[in-house]
Amino acid sequence: MNITEKILARRYALAFLNVYSSFLKEADFKGMCLLSSYFCERRQACFLMRVSLLDEGVKLKALDAIRNIFKLPPCFNKLFSLLIEHKRSIILSDVFDELCNEYKKRNKIITFEVAATEIFSEEQKNIIEKFLHKATQETVLCSYVEDMSLIAGIRLQSNAYLWETSVKDRLHRIRTTFKR
To answer: Which H or E run includes 146?
Structure first.
């Protein structure tokens, strides 16, 4: 993607949120982010939306079906319609990526990936999420993954923050100290 497409995607996302953000709920935010990943993994589907042989009605029907799968409100059909009409369906994944980023910024939401060598209980997850909320003063959404390379530890990572305490991290610090 070039810089022009990135700017266009951001403009479409901002315009959409300026009009419809008051109608969106947290579940819609999660659906937007899932749809962003879906379009990113299936860029060929976005490309097919540009094929002029396909009727616009067929394209919109397909996108409406996708919207329903991700449980997004009907207001997204207006965005789909606009992108198809302007022949910009190729930037669908970028628009949804920008929608997620802007929605997070406006609603002070930060997402963390929590990696550990074992699966956490719900009580442990609550403790982690309270810690992150207190540390960032933002709404925290976490995804949890198992990472055996940490060797008895935990890593909390977002785009802006990283907390790690693990044997792997300690070994890395020791190795760095000896290299100096």
So the answer is: strand 139-146
Are 46 and 90 within 8 A, CB to CB?
Answer: yes
Q: Which two tokens stand for residue 120?
A: 């956490």
* Fold adopted by 3-106: Peroxidase; domain 1 (1.10.520)
DSSP string, 39-53: HHHTHHHHHHTT-TT
The pTM score is 0.74
- Determine contact, residues 180/152, Cβ cutoff 8 Å: no
The rounded Cα 78 to chain-centroid distance in angstroms is: 21
Domain boundaries, the chain: 3-106, 109-179
Mean pLDDT in order along the chain per 10 residues (180 residues): 87 95 89 88 72 80 92 95 89 91 91 89 93 92 86 86 80 77
